[in-house]
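Quick log. Single chain, no ligands specified.
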Amino acid sequence: MNRIFRQLLAALLLTLFAGLAQAQANLQLNTPSIETLKKSMRERHAQLKPFLENGAVGLTREGGMALRDANAVPLPQRAAANSLVAAENADRSSLYKEIAVANGKPEWEGEIRNTFAQRWIERAQPGWYVQNAQNQWVKK
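-> predicted structure:
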């Protein structure tokens, strides 16, 4: 499971690099902050995956995750699901910012976020929910 996530993250970073090549972005930078964020996201993925698979959590078009169907999460697990989503969103936001800062271009954060959002959705597993351009949830 973590191997798949690492491959997804590596492919996403390579794709992001290619998409920003004209701006001379180096998305292969691996600062201590970026490595810490990636590690945290990899470790959390195993806990988030069941919620993604049952449709409770979906990928947003803004590059984050959202608890899209609280009823799909048993009441005793809802607080944990909300905490996982909040932690993932915090790490994702920090990752986008750190990549931009590591490139000496903090103003690229929005473009990096948009590229990641698009790639996360493109690489979502079948059955996961993603937001489309109209902010509607669709099952992949």
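Strands lie at 57-59, 65-67, 129-131, 137-139.
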